[in-house]
Amino acid sequence: MNDNEPYTTADGRKIGGVLMEMKNITLRFGGVKAITDISFNIREGEIRAIIGPNGAGKSSMLNVISGFYIPQEGEVWYKGAPRPQMKPYEVAQQGIARTFQNIALFEGMSVLDNVMTGRLNHMKTGIFAQALWKGKAEKEEEANREQVEKVIDFLEIQHIRKTPVSRLPYGLKKRVELARALAAEPSLLLLDEPMAGMNVEEKEDMSRFILDVNDEFGTTIALIEHDMGVVMDLSDRVVVMDYGKKIGDGTPDEVRSNQDVIDAYLGVAHD
Amino acid sequence: MPEQFYWGLEAALNGLMTGVLYALVALGFVLIYKASGIFNYAQGVMALFAALTLVGIMQGQVPFAHLINAIFGTDVHHFGWHLPALAGIILTLGVMILFAWIVQKLIFKHLVGQEPIILFMATIGLAYFLEGFGDIMWGSDIKALDVGLPQGINSWLDETTFNAFNYGFFIDNLDVVATVIAAILVAALVVFSQYSKQGRAMRAVADDHQAALSVGINLNFIWVLVWSLAGFVALVAGVMWGTKSGVQFSLSLIALKALPVLMLGGFTSIPGAIVGGLIIGVGEKLFEFLIGPMVGGATENWFAYVLALIFLVFRPQGLFGEKIIERV
């Protein structure tokens, strides 16, 4: 199948061309190879999962995409062009938003303020206008506020908008983090174990939100997950990693029947 | 009403005004500490440096005049101009922003993620460097600073209170102006940090670096911004103190008075710095007035520190500081 050919999924979502391509990525920490020569792509509008056992290098891969780690070898292509070496904040400004495995929220701020920080890149008014708090900045704040309220509504966290994040239970924190990433209206949304540590009910909620986000806004999503069942239900295509190497890539069904994958992960860990 | 009461009231009022100045210095500490976790020992020296630079620029002093003369055998001292106060203040602000940028670029950029004690040591080094640098740049003699702020007894207040209570209150005009300016400054800072884009980014950086990066905040820019703001606050404090008692190197010691203010108010709270400053200002004046005569006076030198010690024992996070709760 040509990776650049747009198609429509069985449930009617449109998948476009390649948005991001990882080409022969190798990442080392001193002598330890975290990622070895991995290539795969992420297409516009799809939900792409990266799975693998503990220590497979999944989070490292996500950190390479979001600019927190810089690979020693290989190239990251984004929107059809190679990406020069960038700081994480520059990557974010390019429209790549992310969440963290261990939740990185601004604990001292309210939910609303947290989600508002997601809009920082959409605020263009200069520092002096901001300091003087003139009409333009005010109008901009209002427009951003509207978008934020939309996201808050969408993720059903209206009832906690004024609550300081530090007081929220774990599951809700995860949802607020998703809201903050979503408020940035990202071209690519990276989710690092969005369901880690959740109970069954919270997991179901989160799955629904991920699907809804993708469906409603057409957001491209790349996620890392441990829970195999969840991944298979959610994603269009799956990359499987083990010991820093890619051992499988394809639709959930293809991956499920891949012998390497079964050996490394499925066959051992499940059933 | 007994005269004693009026004396006490007058002392308290004067203390209130001094407290505002303490609060101004403490504010500079809080700004940097909140956003970067750095306890900036150099804040007092920054106030001194800002005041020195302002005087130098306004009087058209040649920077590094002694050094230049010593090396080249020349005899330059002044450019021969006198700038108006406003122009001088704007130029000095420019210098403080440049200073913030250099400090971030040369020092703290390379110390990201280090232990707080290492960052603290770096600011001690910075303080001594800046003090020496200010000396070489502008000379070490005491200079008068006059930016046109009113000084002397406020005669309106004096007359009004005399007519009302038969006792005229002695309040310095400069103190009144300082209070008003400080109030405006604090209000502006609070509004800026609560509602503006950069303010929100500042709070975000203070809270979590990683998360701040992930929403596209340039940490370096925010830190330069914070140091610039602290430089601005230092300039305001330097102008006030400099006008009051001349620009001299002991100015950097006011930073020491800011320490008990911070212990009272909490290192992370802007309102805390204000209230802490006021309490110390009023407290030391009243204490001197009431208890001073019994113990032979000079209580103002130690009262603030003893109060801070008591606070450390009973409420270590200060009045407004974030509570330190350890979960097990």
Give a structural overview.
- The complex is a heterodimer of chains A (271) and B (328).
- Chain A is of the alpha/beta class and 271 residues long.
- Chain A is 38% helix and 24% strand.
- Chain A has ten helices and twelve strands.
- Chain A has helices spanning 58-65, 88-93, 111-117, 127-132, 135-154, 170-183, 200-217, 228-234, 252-256, 259-269, and strands at residues 7-8, 14-15, 18-29, 32-43, 47-51, 73-78, 81-82, 96-98, 188-192, 220-224, 237-242, 245-250.
- A six-stranded mixed sheet of chain A has the order 8-9-10-5-11-12, with helices on both faces. A four-stranded antiparallel sheet of chain A has the order 4-3-6-7, with helices on one face.
- Chain A is globular and about 60 Å long.
- The mean pLDDT of chain A is 88.
- Chain B has one domain (3-314).
- The longest helix of chain B is centred in the N-terminal third of the chain and has 34 residues, at 3-36.
- The chains are: A alpha/beta (271), B mainly alpha (328).
Decide which structural class fits the backbone of chain A.
alpha/beta
Tally of DSSP helical segments of chain B: 14
Oligomeric nature of the chains = heterodimer
Rg of chain B: 21 Å
Could you state the CATH homologous superfamily of the largest domain in chain A? P-loop containing nucleotide triphosphate hydrolases
State the major sheet of chain A. 6 strands, mixed
Family (chain B): Belongs to the binding-protein-dependent transport system permease family. LivHM subfamily.
Protein name (chain B): Branched-chain amino acid ABC transporter permease
InterPro entries (chain B): ABC_transp_permease (IPR001851), BCAA_transport_permease (IPR052157)
Keywords (chain B): Amino-acid transport, Cell membrane, Membrane, Transmembrane, Transmembrane helix, Transport
